[in-house]
Design brief:
166 residues, 0% strand, elongated
Length: 166
């Protein structure tokens, strides 16, 4: 049941990220073409900035799900399995605490920007800033999911094979 709900959430998240990125690219392209043609699309920068926040946070969680964020694990790989397991759980708990703080403050920030309209579009600035607590909540769900999997497995995830970055 929970696995199915997470699967649906993850699929919706990927669709939202793809749509936001597509709209972002389209809006930026329109802005560039408009400026080049001497008819600037005045609202394009505002919309692009807000979409960029959404894309960055959604992509951040998608990368977290794949354990794709940069990490320096030279020392952690030298630890014996039990110590590595304890370190992995401790890191996940610290990340969960940090994300909890970020969610709380993200909601406060979105509340502060709710009454502020964007100058060109008149849209409330909170449509962009609400991406912060939403993205951090998605990341917290991912961290909880990974922590539970680590606790059930009673071992850290196996080291990933190195992959080329560029």
């Amino acid at each position: 049941m929970i696995g199915r709900a997470l699967g649906i959430l993850r699929a919706m998240e990927k669709v939202a990220a793809a749509v936001a990125l597509s709209v972002l690219v389209t809006v930026v392209f329109m802005g560039v073409v408009g400026r080049y043609a001497g008819r600037p699309v005045l609202w394009s920068d505002e919309i692009a900035q807000g979409l960029f926040v959404w894309v960055a946070l959604l992509a951040g969680d998608i990368t977290l799900q794949r354990r794709g964020h940069f990490s320096v694990d030279i020392l952690a790989n030298l630890l014996p399995p039990r110590a590595r397991y304890a370190l992995d759980v401790a890191i996940h708990l610290l990340l969960a605490a940090l994300l909890g703080l970020l969610i709380y403050n993200g909601f406060k920030f979105a509340g502060m920007t709710n009454s502020r309209p964007l100058p060109m579009t008149g849209i409330r600035a909170s449509w962009a800033t609400i991406a912060l607590p939403v993205g951090f909540t998605l990341m917290l769900i991912t961290i909880v999911e990974q922590t539970v999997a680590t606790l059930i497995r009673r071992a850290p995830p196996p080291p990933e094979t190195p992959r080329e970055v560029m």
